[in-house]
Amino acid sequence: MIQIVYKKLLQAHSVYSYVRQMLGGDWSDSQLDPFILAAIAHFERHSGYSFNRYEICALVTVAEDDYIGRYVALPLPPVQEIKKVEGSNYGEFTELSTDEYSVMDAGTTLILPKTNHILFRVTYTAGFSQPPDDAIGHVASFAYKLITEYNLPPPPDSIPRFSSPYLERHL
What we know:
Blueprint: E1 2-11, H1 15-23, H2 29-47, E2 53-61, E3 63-65, E4 69-73, E5 79-88, E6 94-95, E7 101-105, E8 109-113, E9 119-126, H3 133-149, H4 165-170
Antiparallel strand pairs: 1-2, 2-9, 3-4, 4-8, 5-6, 5-9, 7-8
Helix pairs in contact: 1-3, 2-3
């Protein structure tokens, strides 16, 4: 079980300008921004990764794996910093010291508890410091798809300038 208690925006990235460059043309902000915003939301929902930097507080339960052992997987990677880990057996939460858990990064960040707690409340910062080009390419590709589906007339000099091999294959 994973439940996000709160998600506070710390830093929004200027993905809009990168996507506009990939789409080409002289789009007005009011024309293009809703499509880019929808494409970012689509990417975050389906990839599980976040473009923006957030402070997140999540309630998570322990999972078991034969190889890893007991672990807690944190949602919305990439995790930049773990601020606080608290444990509970469905009562009050108590803050754990850093020697009561270890952290492993295996694509997503896992907390390996050395205690018998069942429920954990973890506060951490997550999100890209700079979104990767391929992720921006996915957003540009999906924004372009939305634009064509909604028949938004392109500006006269609009020629998509996709520099990503992924985009050239998937458009």
